[in-house]
Amino acid sequence: MGVDTAGRVVVSSYPERAKAKNAARNELASVCVLSDRFDGEWVQVDGRVEVVRQPEAIEALVEYYRSISGEHPDWEDYRQAMIRQEKVLLRLTIDRWSPISQGGFPARLVPVD
Prior knowledge:
Strands 1, 2, 3, 4, 5 and 6 form a six-stranded antiparallel beta sheet that branches. By secondary structure, the chain is of the alpha+beta class. The protein has helices spanning 18-25, 57-69, 75-84; strands at 2-3, 9-13, 28-34, 42-52, 88-97, 110-111. The protein has a single domain, classed as Electron Transport, Fmn-binding Protein, Chain A (Pnp Oxidase, Chain A).
């Protein structure tokens, strides 16, 4: 999972996975982002999700990779792998988020201006 240049949460997936099927069926989604520490901070973000499918997904998946890992040693190989694997990209436009929390459930969600 990462954040694209437009500030959307992005996730690479396969079209047959539950998250991709659910996103295709219902444009409203939530993501819970956890810290690396056990029992650490977390935040829930809610918004509208879109499924970007092949062939439009290819360049979006390149941007996704760059946002998380930087430059790939062979972009053509990466693009061909994404085509072979039929990868899709899920993009969540954030409408609101919970306060950063530790333990328990957030009391309220904060709208994005």
